[in-house]
């Protein structure tokens, strides 16, 4: 028992000498229960809809009010100029600024007044299959509110729905591009975090510290090879998604490459920043997984819509790089969206990359000065 006691005490001393790992072990479950508890929700709190009313009659306005009064809908009305309004509405759908387009036909009131059947056309963004199914259910609810006010019309009015970008509502079309974004961030962050931590463990980082290189030059030099490796890994993931899962690529590969390059730089910068505070490769790997996978799965819109998150977590999602790249990769691959549709997302990725890289360089410089 004395020998066992000695081993137990030795192991406790080892644990206490690595307080960062101990902190992660205790903090991780608390963080996960808080994030999972708030973010795992299939409730949809807001549906951005664009309505085009070609009828312009009191009856069509009542239908518009049925959607507007429904707490789930945020309805934007577009001028009823056929070619221009339909093109503008489709652009909003392609950008992700609207989840559906509601089209009231010109003969809407005339056919109903004559006792003839008519339908309201609705085009839904199907790039998020689960979301598209929920939107269809809420549409039926809004139509039910209208039919309760005009009971004599309930057998005459119906909804004719079209699902764009994913007409078969395949879940792989929704999940696979999202997984690509999560994996690219995780790979790029882990590569650089492990590389720097390994040099610290072996003591070779001190050779870099005493070299004439500036901190920024060291950080950039360490990152560039991993940019190439991450791009190759991302290309392999894309090829696998295209030919194994039959995911269509409707947009420009050049546009996707440009945004992916910025996204990878953001992930590498995050990895370098993690490595400057991690005491070992093990801590660096756990931290990289915690910082990339958990927020990317739960707080980026990958599985659950951002509108279902509470305000605090929605604010946190603004600092998650995958939040912006998910919109880009789904928009380019599934919707065929172009560069002009994602200027805001691209700008945010550049901003995050710059901030993370600057923070990593500053932290690296302080550590270098401390050892001199």
Structure description:
This protein is of the alpha/beta class. It folds into 2 domains: 118 residues, abc type-2 transporter like fold; 201 residues, no CATH class. It contains 14 helices and 5 strands. It has a 5-stranded mixed beta sheet with strand order 2-1-3-4-5, sandwiched between helices. Helix 13 runs antiparallel to helix 14. The protein is elongated and about 90 Å long. The two termini are 47 Å apart. The mean pLDDT is 80.
Supply database-style keywords.
67% helix; single chain; 9% strand; 372 residues; 2 domains; alpha/beta; 5-stranded mixed sheet; abc type-2 transporter like fold; 5 strands
Largest sheet: 5 strands, mixed
Query: Based on DSSP secondary structure assignment, what is the total number of beta strands?
Result: 5
The Cα radius of gyration reads 26 Å
Low-pLDDT ranges: none
Shape: elongated
* Distance between the first and last residues' Cα: 47 Å
- Average pLDDT reading: 80
Tell me the fraction of residues in β-strands, as a range.
5-15%
Total domains, how many? 2
Sheet with the most strands: spatial strand order: 2-1-3-4-5
How do the SSEs run, as a string of H and E? Answer: HHEHEHEHEHEHHHHHHHH
User: How many helical elements?
Assistant: 14
Structural class: alpha/beta
Helical proportion, percent range:
55-70%
Question: What is the secondary structure topology, with strand pairs?
Answer:
Elements: H1 2-16, H2 19-39, E1 47-53, H3 58-69, E2 73-78, H4 82-95, E3 100-104, H5 108-113, E4 118-125, H6 129-149, E5 157-164, H7 171-202, H8 205-209, H9 215-243, H10 253-277, H11 281-298, H12 311-317, H13 321-335, H14 343-371
Parallel strand pairs: 1-2, 1-3, 4-5
Antiparallel strand pairs: 3-4
């Amino acid at each position: 028992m004395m020998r066992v006691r000695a081993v137990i005490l030795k192991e406790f001393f080892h644990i206490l000498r690595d307080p960062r790992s101990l902190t992660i072990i205790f903090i991780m479950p608390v963080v996960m229960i808080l994030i999972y508890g708030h973010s795992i929700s299939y409730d949809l709190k807001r549906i951005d809809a664009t309505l085009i009313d070609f009828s312009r009659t009191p009856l069509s306005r009542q239908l518009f009010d049925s959607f507007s009064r429904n707490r789930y809908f945020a309805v934007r009305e577009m001028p009823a100029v056929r070619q221009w309004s339909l093109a503008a509405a489709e652009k909003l759908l392609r950008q992700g600024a609207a989840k559906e387009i509601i089209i009231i036909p010109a003969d809407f009131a005339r056919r109903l007044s004559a006792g003839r059947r008519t339908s309201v056309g609705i085009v839904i963004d199907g790039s998020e299959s689960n979301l598209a199914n929920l939107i269809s259910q809420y549409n039926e609810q809004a139509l039910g509110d209208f039919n309760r006010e005009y009971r004599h019309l309930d057998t005459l009015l119906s909804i004719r729905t079209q699902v764009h970008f994913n007409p078969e509502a395949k879940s792989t079309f929704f999940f696979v591009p999202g997984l690509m974004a999560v994996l690219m961030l995780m790979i790029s962050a882990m590569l650089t975090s492990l590389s720097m931590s390994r040099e610290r463990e072996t003591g070779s980082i001190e050779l870099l510290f005493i070299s004439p290189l500036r901190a920024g030059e060291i950080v950039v030099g360490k990152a560039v090879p991993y940019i190439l490796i991450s791009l190759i890994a991302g290309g392999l993931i894309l090829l696998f998604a295209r030919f194994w899962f039959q995911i269509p690529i409707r947009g420009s590969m050049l546009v996707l490459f440009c945004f992916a390059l910025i996204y990878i730089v953001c992930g590498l910068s995050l990895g370098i920043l993690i490595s400057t505070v991690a005491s070992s490769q093990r801590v660096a790997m756990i931290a990289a997984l915690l910082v990339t996978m958990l927020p990317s799965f739960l707080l980026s819109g990958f599985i659950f819509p951002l509108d279902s998150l509470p305000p605090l977590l929605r604010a946190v999602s603004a600092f998650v790089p995958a939040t912006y790249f998910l919109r880009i990769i789904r928009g380019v691959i599934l919707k065929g969206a172009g560069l002009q549709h994602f200027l805001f997302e691209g700008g945010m990725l550049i901003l995050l990359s710059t901030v993370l890289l600057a923070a990593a360089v500053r932290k690296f410089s302080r550590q270098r000065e401390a050892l001199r």
